[in-house]
Amino acid sequence: MNNSTTQLKTHFSYNPLWHLLIDRGIKKQELQKMSHVSAASIAKMGRCENVTMDVLLRICEALDVELNDIVERVPN
Q1: Per CATH, which fold does 11-74 belong to?
Q2: First-to-final CA distance of the chain
Q3: CB-based burial label for 1 (10 Å; 0-12, 13-18, 19+)
Q4: What digits encode the pLDDT tens for the residues 10-47?
Q5: Model's pTM, two decimal places?
């Protein structure tokens, strides 16, 4: 029996957010100001790195969208 713990890693993409911004004519810098999210967090999202749920919810509130409108799960 294998005693090692298998770690599941889920990857997310923010491509829906970038498409939404393009459709609405909003620049990343404008999003930063609207949502009160740091430039570092926006940059992390641009690199498909994890950000906090607080960041995602601020963006959702600023854009008046749901979480699934700005992020999608990417199969491993």
Answers
A1: 434 Repressor (Amino-terminal Domain) (1.10.260)
A2: 25
A3: exposed
A4: 688 999 999 999 999 999 999 999 999 999 999 999 99
A5: 0.83
